[in-house]
Structure formats: C-alpha cells, structure tokens
Design goal:
This protein is mainly beta. It has a single domain, classed as Urease, subunit C, domain 1, CATH 2.30.40. The protein is built from 1 helix and 7 strands. β6 and β7 form a beta hairpin. It is globular and about 40 Å long.
Length: 113
C-alpha cells in the first residue's frame, strides 16, 4: 500500500477538485480510498502538481486545456481507478503549463529473473 498527498486531487468520475487530500493505492496501483488530510500520516508522500484519479489516462494532446483532457478522462471505459500526478500544474488557473507531464504514481516492481 502507498499513500500520496497533494494540494489538489481531481476526481474525474465526479468532475470535482478536492483540496488537501490523500490517495491510498493498493499493491497493484489501484485506488483504494481518498480521504481528507487532517493530520500528518506516516509513510505518506507529498507530491507537487495535482493528482488525477480516473479509470484510464489517454496521452495529453499538444495545446489541450485541462478542461478538454478532463472531458476525455470521463469517456474512458469503466475500470478500476488509477492515479497520476500532473506536474508542473498551474493550481490557481486549474490549467496545464507548457511543461506539464502526466506521471504515473504507481510503477510495478521490477522482477528479476
């Protein structure tokens, strides 16, 4: 299990932005829960930008605004929810920056043969 906290979290299914929340992922990277950050929690990693929760993440199109990307997230087939971080991100404008990248929060462990 891994926990990530961010200033803002976007829930694509509800088209809603949450302030100061934590996302908890299971060992396969699926979102288990999202809850408000009320106090410091051990083993919680703070990340910059925003965390986006959705069933899938299409590549970002050049010059696409966040609102357009959010619309495409909602059209993803229903599936378990996953989380990515978008950084850098303009929080006050709720908009991508020219250097924004979509970064998975979960990477499966490397298996050695």
């Amino acid at each position: 299990m891994k926990r990530f906290a961010a200033r803002r979290i976007y829930l694509s299914s509800e088209q809603r932005m949450l302030d100061l929340h934590v996302v908890e992922l299971d060992d396969s990277g699926i979102v288990r829960t999202v809850f408000p950050l009320r106090e410091e929690i051990s083993h919680t990693e703070w990340v910059s930008g925003i965390i986006v929760i959705a069933p899938g993440f299409p590549p970002r199109r050049p010059e696409e605004p966040f609102s357009g990307y959010a619309d495409r997230l909602r059209s993803q087939p229903a599936a378990p929810l996953h989380a990515v971080r978008i950084a850098p991100f303009n929080l006050s404008a709720t908009e991508f920056t020219p250097h924004s990248r979509v970064i998975p929060l979960f990477s499966p462990p490397i298996t050695r043969i």
